[in-house]
Amino acid sequence: MEVKEKGKPILGICLGAQLMTKHSEEGDIDGLGWVDAVTVRFDANKLNKLPIPHMGWSDITLANDCELWQNLPADPRFYFVHSYHFLFEEQAEVTATSLYGYDFACAFKKGNIFGAQFHPEKSHKFGMKVLENFSKLSV
After folding, report:
1. Which of 47, 51, 87, 131 has the smallest number of Cβ neighbours within 10 A?
2. Strand ranges in 19-119 using DSSP code E only, listed in sequence order
3. Is residue 4 in some structural domain?
């Protein structure tokens, strides 16, 4: 009710963001359906023998303007630990991508709903800025 009806901002991180999609291959279960995406496992055939899970620091590419990216330090990189990622039907909802064997959506926004596949809480000055920007959002 707070999120969908009252427009309260929410930020899903990693699994929390995956839960916001329509469906997840992990457990083959429906999600909340708050964004026009599904959660899929990394395609091992496209990873050129990179291990799953994707674990460590990776650069992101900002794809769309988003309040979370305001005043980010140069060359933003974030800490990832995941085996699944988002596949979006509506690319306008994707706010950042990253590369791990292939490009994948790593952050999104749909109205007041925000999600990040990476862990801002483990991502030093880059993550602190994202969390600070989110904390300044209001209904």
Report:
1. 51
2. 23-24, 29-30, 37-41, 54-62, 77-82, 84-88, 94-100, 102-110, 113-116
3. no
Give dist(CA 134, CA 16) in Å, integer.
15
54 is catalytic: no
Res. 20: pLDDT tops 90: yes
Domain of 20? Answer: 10-135
Model pTM above 0.85: yes
Give the CATH number for residue 120: 3.40.50.880
Instruction: Compute the residue count for the chain.
Output: 139
Using CA atoms, how far apart are residues 112 and 2, in angstroms rounded to an integer? 11
Do the bridges between strand 113-116 and strand 10-13 make them parallel or antiparallel, or are there none, so unpaired? parallel
The catalytically annotated residue of 89, 121, 124, 132 is 121
- pLDDT tens digits, one per residue of 67-115: 999 999 888 999 999 999 999 999 999 999 999 999 999 999 999 999 9
Report the domain count for the chain. Answer: 1
On whether residue 92 sits in a domain, the answer given is yes
Active site residue 121: yes
The answer to the question of residue 81 being in a domain is: yes
Is residue 2 one of the residues assigned to a domain?
no
